[in-house]
Design goal:
TIM Barrel; PLC-like_Pdiesterase_TIM-brl; phosphoric diester hydrolase activity; GP_PDE_dom; 8-stranded parallel beta barrel; Glycerophosphodiester phosphodiesterase; alpha/beta
């Protein structure tokens, strides 16, 4: 199989639907991306929910920290009208609802799960995520990522065979040392940093994925460099430019 740069749909296709909602993931799947990326927090009463921010303020009509709200309170919020196009009635999905959605869609690519422990402490969340994944017995691949290196160490300890990625603005020596030690397999870095350090594009590129790449010129830079993956809000544009630069995918 040719080594094409992977296209990763960031929080679904959030340029056309509310991020981290089932409509956004459904919209992304229409473009057959290589991965879906999503984020996990935990409610006050211990439910895993798919949302990016620590609070519900930006993406719903509610306020407060996810960790201080019950699932019933989370589910009462409207997550479909904070941006255009407005989608009334859309709610924050639970992790179980999301995994059921993937099951119903016969998802067969890769799921990229971001564990949001970089600003909030959710003791034991890593084991809970792994347990729920085990319950669903997915046939597709999963990569676990986080900015929190302790979370990555915990995933590696609990699931030694798991694929693990470190999120970093800039990799730095500590991140690459831990990668060398086998704590994680990939490094996911900020496109803004790599644009200022272009030589990084041409060194050890096959373990590197870049976030969040939405401009056409930046996409071309990543595709020409042959990096492992590109995390984007604009799945359609990334698909078009990858074909221009790298050609059609083939086995």
């Amino acid at each position: 199989m040719n080594k094409q740069t992977q296209i990763i749909a960031h929080r679904g296709y959030c340029a056309v639907a509310p991020e981290n909602t089932l409509p956004a993931f459904e919209a992304a799947l229409a473009y057959n991306p290589d991965m879906l990326e999503m984020d996990l927090h935990r409610t006050k009463d211990g439910h895993l929910v798919v949302i990016h921010d620590e609070t519900v303020d930006r993406t719903t009509n509610g306020t407060g920290l996810v960790k201080d709200l019950t699932l019933a309170e989370i589910k009462s919020l409207d997550a479909g009208q904070y941006k255009a196009p407005k989608m009334p009635g859309v709610t924050i999905p639970t992790f179980a609802e999301f995994l059921t959605f993937l099951q119903d869609q016969h998802f067969a690519k890769t799921l990229l799960i971001e564990i949001k422990t970089d600003h909030q402490d959710y003791p034991g969340i890593e084991a809970e995520i792994l347990a729920m994944v085990a319950d669903f017995k997915p046939s597709y691949a999963i990569i676990y990522q986080s900015f929190n290196l302790e979370t990555l160490k915990t995933i590696r300890r609990l699931a030694p065979a798991a694929d693990v990625a470190a999120l970093a603005v800039w990799g730095g020596y500590k991140v690459y040392w831990l990668k060398w030690r086998g704590v994680f397999d990939y490094v996911h870095v900020d496109i803004r940093i790599l644009k200022h350090k272009p030589k990084i594009f041409w060194r050890s590129t096959w373990h590197t994925r870049v976030w969040t790449v939405d401009k056409a010129d930046d996409m071309r830079l990543v595709f020409k460099a042959g990096l492992r993956g590109l995390i984007t809000n604009d799945v359609a544009l990334a698909t078009k430019i990858r074909t221009e630069v790298q050609g059609e995918p083939h086995d």
